[in-house]
Design brief:
Blueprint lengths: L7 H11 L3 E3 L11 E3 L1 H20 L4 E4 L7 H6 L2 H4 L1 E6 L6 E3 H7 L10 H11 L17 E4 L3 E2 L12 E2 L6 H14 L5 E10 L14 E11 L5 H17 L7 E5 L9 E9 L2 E10 L3 H10 L5 E2 L6 E2 L2 E8 H12 E6 L2 E6 L10 E5 L5 H17 L3 E3 L5 H11 L3 E5 L13 E6 L5 E5 L3 H8 L1
Parallel strand pairs: 3-9, 19-20, 19-21
Antiparallel strand pairs: 1-2, 4-5, 4-6, 7-8, 9-10, 10-16, 11-12, 12-13, 13-16, 14-15, 17-18, 21-22, 22-23
Helix pairs in contact: 2-10
The structure holds adenosine-5'-triphosphate.
Length: 466
Amino acid sequence: MELETSNGMEKIVSLCKRRGFVYPGSEIYGGLAGIYDFGPRGVELLNNLKKAWWQANVYDKENHYGLDAGMFKNPRAWEASGHTSGFSDPMAECKKCNTRIRVDKALEAIGVTADEKMSEDEINALFDAHRAQIACAKCGAHDFSRAKKFNLLVKSNLGDFTSEGTEPVYLPGEACQGIYLDYKNIVDTMQPKIPFGVAQIGKAFRNEISPRNFLFRCREFEQADTQLFIKPHENKEAYEALKKDRWNWFLSIGIKEENLRLKQHENLVFYAKDAWDVEYKFPWGFDELEGIHDRSDYDLTQHMKFSGVDLNYTDPENGEKYIPWILETSMGMGRLFLAVIADAYHEDDLGGEVRVVLKLHPKLAPVKAMVSPLLRNKPELVARAREVYQALKKEIPQIAWDDNGNIGKRYRRQDEIGTPYCITIDFDTLGETAELLDTVTVRDRDSGEQTRMKIAELASFIKSKI
Ligand code: ATP
């Protein structure tokens, strides 16, 4: 059985906590809305996802470069990008219980599209026309305040030692700006030939009005972005290829095709030539996982105008000068993490008992194999099992030791973590049955089947699967 939609999220949140994947941020102080911590198993899965993304977007491509830009930027950068003036969501407050809602999302839920370009008055006209259909999620009332546009940038007082209200330095509202600001440095130092790509995984912060759906809408999150710099007007074919490339990547990490779809934006911002979202079927329905945007020359033109620095690219062959156009892919790592867990979540009915198993692709699993002695109170079994564990760990870092409870309990636990293989050292390993000396049982997570394998073959077997 796969994840039901009704209480699917509760099951995921509970499993993530129980098995050390994701904890609510600052939980001992009552938490902080929209902030989560990745626990020991979560950080391994997250790193495996980042590695798979980096492999596909830097190493497997020609002319693609990695970057890790500083988070803080000169405040002028956020003016140039349009974030200080335009990066806002319309917010209204329930007059009965003070719960805040995002008006555009509430309208979207009843099938009404609010355009990003709308003024506050235009949004309110649309809101007024549909107020009767919008109920407060907390108290059910239909009595909301007027919608107000609320800027999402998070301010800091970096470098302000006077507290006299000098211009705030913002935390990044989106990670990709770092790539635009370093575009000239990359061109000057790497001499890339167009088309070239720059990939970065970086943190972003947004004062989201109502953080919700666990890792889906947070106030602090990570984005994995690729910006592809292309010749002006050579966008059509490259854009189609990019969409296909990203689609295939989601399949390559094991996400089921039927849970993915591509959706075109109905309303485009003025500079965009085209925009599509890769959507995943989350427990509450299809929603955005990644944006793929055809951004023309907007970003570099804006930064050239505001900085006064020439950001033209000079073609090394014919000396032609132009501002490259940009095709962008931007994916929330937390949203990907949630999609991967939701997609892998399975419940089997074992004669009345429910077995929860995360059928993660072995290359993503936070633990590749668990090693344990059949019985924890037999020193000779424990000693041999520890030798096997230590030898394997030298070759494959993500190996776990587990001797808690009986073997059945250990299997259940590892199933929930998504560990593809459980290795058990028993008396046959020690030579009780002569021909089985130095062999172990390897249990397969998905089929539950156990096979006998030589200890010497374990590492290459696991490596072949990951
Ligand atoms: P939404 O419409 O859901 O608010 P967006 O269109 O504003 O998202 P972008 O600005 O295009 O999102 O950001 C690119 C990606 O970053 C999104 O596809 C999403 O995966 C991720 N992302 C955006 N906002 C959040 C958030 N608050 N929490 C987690 N991930 C986010």
